[in-house]
Amino acid sequence: MKIAFIGTYPPRECGIGTFTQNLFHSSVGEEAVVGGSQGFVIAIDDNGLHYDYPKEVKLTIRQEEQTDYLEAANLINLSGADICILEHEFGIFGGQDGIYILPLLYRLKIPLIVTLHTVLKTPSYNQKAVMTEICKIAQSVVVMSQTAVDMLSDVYKVPIDKIALIAHGVPDIHFGQLLTKKEFKLSSKQVLLTFGFIGRNKGIETVLRALPEVVKKYPQLVYIVLGKTHPNVVRHAGEEYRVFLAGLVKQLGIEKHVVFLNEFISQSELFKYLSASDIYITPYTSEAQITSGTLSYAIGAGNAVISTPYWHAAELLADGRGRLFNFHDSPALTEILLELLDHPDQMQQLRKNAFDYGREITWPKIGEKYLELAESIAKIGLDLESGSPMILDPLALPPFLLDHVQRLTDDTGIIQHAKYGIPNLKEGYCLDDNARALLMVLMTYKRNKHPLALKLSPTYLSYINYMQTQDGMFRNFLSFNRNFLDEVGSEDSFGRTIWSLGYLLGNAPNDAYYQTGREIFFDAVPNFTNLRSIRSIANTIVGICHYLKSNPTDEGMIKILEALTGRLLTEYDIHRSNDWQWFESLLAYDNAFLPLALLHAAEFLHDPRVFEVAIESMDFLSDVTLRNGYLSVVGNENWYGRDREQSMFAQQPLDALAMVLMFHQAFRLTKDQSYIQKLSTCFMWFLGENDLRVSLYDFETKGCCDGLESTGVNRNQGAESTLAYLISHLSVLEAFEEVTKMEAELV
C-alpha cells in the first residue's frame, strides 16, 4: 500500500506537524509494526515561510496559494498512491476557514481519510459548511475522543459508520526521573510542568495565582512553562501575553519558583522534561478543545496530570488517570497541588494509571490502527463519478506576480506609463493608477497576506492623500519631480479613487490605514452628489457599496447611494429604446462599469428596478461584445454609436477588467454559474482569446500590454493595463473560491 499524507510537517514548529511526522513513521516508516507500505508527505507552508524538509516531503503547498492545492491533487493522482490521509485544522489551510483544501479534495481520485484535530460545537456558518463538505468527501473521518464522535454526528450529521475513534498517539520514549532531574539540576525540586505553544487560551495565569500558597509549604517547588508563543499570536499581538505573565510572577513574588523556557524542542528533549516533572498541568480556559497532543504526551510519559475539564481532558483523565479542577479556579488548583504533594502515594498512583494507559496509545500501535483503517478503505475503493468540468481552473492561469508593479513603483507612487517594460519617468504619476494600485494590493493582501502588497499599500494611499485638495476633490497628475500638473483632476479619477477608498474601508489591513482612508473618503463625500460624469458616478457607487458592506447602518450614505443610482437610471431611461438598452447614445469606454455599479447598488437598495436595469444593460453589452464566443471590446478609436459600426481597435485592458468585475458581481448577486463562464471568457481576453489572438500578458516582464491596435499589440506596459490585468486575475481567483464554497454548501 502507498499512502499520501497531507499536513504541516517538521521542521515547521507545529503540533499537527509533529503528529503528521509521527503518523508517517509509525505507519509506513521505520517505526511501523507492519512492514511493506510506502508513503510520502505533502507539507503545508506557513505565510511565506519555507523549510528544509526531509526526503519524505515530495511537495509543499503555500498556505494562501490556491494553485498549489490543485497541483498537489495532480501529484497525488499520478503518484500511484492507494489512499490519502489528511490532517485537518481550520487554521493551517488557506482561504476563509481553510476553504482552499476543498478543491484539492474534490480532485482526488483515490479514497480519503481525514483526521480532525478540531471539532467545533458551535461553528460559524462557513466553518460548518467547510467541515461538512470535508466529511462528505472523506471515506472515513478519524477523531480522538468520544465527545468528538458525538458532535460529528449531532452537529455535522456525519454517519456513525464513517467515524473512526483512534486515540492521539504518544512516542515510545522513556527516561528515568532521577537521572533527568539530575541532568536538569532539579534533583532537590518538586517540578510542575506545562508545555506547548503559549497563548491567552492556555490559562497559565491560573497556575501562577495558585502557587503562592503552595510554595509557602514547598519552598523547593519550581513551575516550568516550556514552549514558544504561538506564531499566530506573535504575528498579531507580539509577546503581550508572555510579558503579562512575567509581570504577574513578579507581582505574586514567585520569581524564584517560575521558569519560562521560550523554545520549541525536540520530542526526545520534551520527554526528558516530562520525565523530570512530578506533576503536569493543563490549565486551559475553555472546554472547547477536542484534542490535546500535549495532554496525550503527558499521559504517555506517565505523569501525574491535573487539568481543567476541557473535552479531551475530561475523557482522557477518567478512571483515575488524572485530576480535574474548574476553569480559572486557582484556589481549587492550590488545594489539589497541596493534596498530591502531601500524599506522594496518591501522586504515584496517578502516575501508574497514566503510564499503564499510555502503553496502549504508543505511536507504533496507533500507526497500526491507521494502517488497518487505510487497508479496509482501500479495499472498498472509490466510486469515481464523472463530474462536470471546471468552469474556472486556476492552474491554467499564469502565476500571480507583482514584479512589474514593483518595477513601476517608487517612493512617490506608481509611474503611469512605460516604454515596453521599462518605467517612463517623463510621464510622471496619475491619481487613477495609484487608486487602482491601492485597490489591487488590498485585494492581494486580503487573499494571501502577500508581504509586498502590504509594503506597497501605504505608498499608494499617501499619494491619494497628497493629491486631495481642501474641498475634498483631487488633483490627478504629478510630474516625476513632484510638481502638480493640474488644479482639479477629472471626475473619472475622482470616482476611481472613491472606489479604491471604499474598498479600503471594508478591507483595511490595519487600523492606521483604515483611519487615514476614512478621513480622505469623508472629506470627499460632499462632492459625491455634484458629479456629472456617469462613469464617475458609477465608480463612486461601487466605492460607497464597498464602504456599506462594513457600515450597513449609515443611513446618510444610503441616501447618497439612492441619489446617485437614480441619476444612472434617469440616463438609462432617456437613451433606452427597444434595440438600444444603454445609458448613452454610444458605447464608449469602461462600459461594463455602468451595469456593475447598479449590480452593487442592488445589494443595498432592494429596488427591483435597479436590478432589472442592471441585468438588461449587462445583457445588451454582452450581446455586443461576446457575440463571437470571445470578448471583443469596443474599440476606443471611434467607439460604437447607435447608428454606426462598432470600432474594433484601440481595445483597452480597462474595458476587459470592467467586464470581469461585472460578471463577478452578477454571480455574487444571483449565484448563476453562467456568469462565471462569461467572467472566464472575458479574462481570457488578456491571454489571447481576443480579435488578434495574441496575449497581452507578457510572461517575461509579468506586465500587461497597453491594448490591441489595428497594427497589433501596443507593447508598452503601463500601470493602467497591468493593474487591469492583476485586478482581473484576483477577481478570477476570488470567483473560484466562491464557486467552491457554494458547491460545498449545496451538496
From TrEMBL:
Say which domain of life the source belongs to.
Bacteria
Domain Glycosyl transferase family intervals: 182-354
Q: Which GO terms describe its molecular function?
A: glycosyltransferase activity
Magnesium listed as a keyword: no
Keywords recorded for this protein, A-Z:
Transferase
Which InterPro entries would you find in this protein's record? 6-hairpin_glycosidase_sf, Glyco_trans_1
Q: Which GO terms describe its biological process?
A: carbohydrate metabolic process
**What CDD domains does the annotation carry?**
GT4_mannosyltransferase-like
Q: What is this protein called?
A: Glycosyltransferase involved in cell wall bisynthesis
UniProt organism field: Dyadobacter soli
